[in-house]
Amino acid sequence: MNLTQLAQERAAAGRPVRAALIGAGKFGSMFLSQVPTIAGLEVAVIADLDPERARNACRSVGWSEALISATRFTESGGAAAQAEVDVVIEATGNPEAGIRHAEAAIAAGRHIVMVNVEADVLAGPVLAEQARAAGVIYSMAYGDQPALVAEMVDWARAAGFMVACAGKGTKYLPAYHHVTPDEVWAHYGLTAAEAAKAGMNPQMFNSFLDGTKSAIEAAAMANACGLDLPEAGLGFPACGVDDLAHILRPESVGGQLARDGMVEIVSSLERDGRPVFRDLRWGVFVVLKAPNAYASACFRQYGLPTDATGHYAAMYKPFHLIGLELSISVLSVALRGAATGSTRGWRGDAVAVAKRALKAGEWLDGEGGWTVYAKAQPAAISARDRLLPIGLAHDVRLTRDVALGEMLRMEDVALDPARRGVTLRQQMLG
């Protein structure tokens, strides 16, 4: 609880924390909107494929022309990754670009905050090890749900509790897995024209709906927190905040989990489409297990919602503010030398599943597209079966027919060995 003081001390000394931002999209713009009001933090470099678009993004979030003029804009993410800054923020959302930018930053001795969870789930274990070997920090992005979950899990364990389950909420129905970008806007209550006017990307928003983003974030949570993913994939149980401790406990005591220590995503919709009472669509949670009868009694005495046994209780945060909270990561990395969550091992993966029957010779279009969606899987199964990670399922050609609902394997596509993501995933497979 001293980040503000530490940042103010840097401001007073004339040595603000300097950051480079790669990718001035929605997440990056939200971060930029906060920077002028944070003493001791400045963004020295902003990289975007369209630098003028990045300048306009700064204007749209309230930056003065003087501040814009004092900032370096470039179209080269590689140049930004090696700039004279304390922290590099990778926010492109592109797995291949994210990996290359992270490696460039690490090689230059820069700390890296990885907003790009797609790249993190594809190759995070290798990138984190590279950072450790180089003496720099590889961090998740505070404000995004995986980092918030990592914080809650760390709090729970540091307080002496066992973690039965951790995860986030979303809007989910099984039929959403097969929605394409052509159909997505009706699910958001928008017309295609309204979405286009607002600059909204249909494929990106479809990844939120079809389960892909949830699978990616669940894998990131498992890798950062040492938790497991269900072998059958995420269950997306319909669950409000009052039922977290009842539903997200092991089957052996009446819940829906295979065992303690799992990641799960809860839906804000019942399977018939009715809204869940007191849903957690925008939030995150952790289900605690009391280590003894005394702690269990304290749960009741202090008003925690528990299951019928009294041994399981839930804590939750109802909202996340994504880029508006990103400065917490930047300042924590630079001033405390501490990540706000980081990949610690390969426990989970997000793998490609056919949205429809696919034919040999077709090209996959990746996250949120027309051909595949992502399913969360334990890393052990993904490695054993050489499943195709969603981060490698873009702009690749199928080499065989694939049935609707089938998980793809790496051998099912013609992978480009020049892609850095392919190299690092092969390294993870051994």
List keywords for this structure.
Rossmann fold; four-stranded mixed β-sheet; Type Iii Antifreeze Protein Isoform Hplc 12; 17% strand; single chain; six-stranded parallel β-sheet
Give a topology summary.
Layout lengths: L2 H10 L4 E6 L3 H9 L6 E7 L3 H10 L4 H5 L2 E3 L2 H5 L5 E4 L4 H13 L3 E4 L2 H18 L3 E3 L4 H14 L3 E9 L13 H4 L4 H6 L4 H8 L2 H14 L18 H4 L14 E6 L16 E6 L3 H9 L10 E6 L9 H10 L11 E7 L8 E3 L6 E7 H7 L8 E4 L22 H10 L1
Helix pairs in contact: 6-7, 7-12, 7-17, 8-12
Instruction: Give me the CATH superfamily of the largest domain.
Output: NAD(P)-binding Rossmann-like Domain
The best one-word shape is globular
Mean pLDDT: 96
So how many helices?
17
- CATH architectural grouping of the largest domain: 3-Layer(aba) Sandwich
